[in-house]
Task: structure prediction
Amino acid sequence: MMVLMSICGCLFLFENVTCRTIFTDGLHDDLGLELWIEIIVFGFLTAFSFFVWFRFEGTLDIHSIYTLRREGFYWLTILFTFALGTAVGDGISEGSGIAFGPILGLFAGWIALIAIVWIILRYTGHSPKGSSVEIFLFWFAYVMTRPFGASCGDLLSSSKAEGGVNLGTGVTSAIFSGIIVVSVIFLIVTGHDLEVLKADPLAETRGL
Result:
């Protein structure tokens, strides 16, 4: 059952990323919507999805996602966060004209900074496991993974004349797909991402 759920999750993630790309790029390239407007719109939709999710479930912790409704809130939020991350990444890269390498380093630095802040807060007792601070830092970093991944893909697939490595889209897609498949298989085999479910009074009071 866990294998089936993981495979379905991967397929849904690929579809989600594709829809997000068509949605975000379509608004900008086809309809001419400015990227800063997209950032505001998708920022609002992301915040609203978090608000509704928390209003109904009382938590935004991904480790509490073990009901169908929470799964729905999760994937809807993922759609908006991916769109927001894409708009932010495109806005910075197009607006600054910086090469792929420095852009990749910028987003990697942001994610690393968030990780460092989390480690410091965790070991000083200010961000215990499952706390609102930890959850906020997780989602903040998650939004940054989208432009980080896109910048990495652009760097690998673009020609050397454009400042890339010139691997092409096919090889780059194969590399990313391989990493995802290996990661999923690793988690299925080891179960490192699983936690023992505890009684959830919030779920019980909401009839879940």
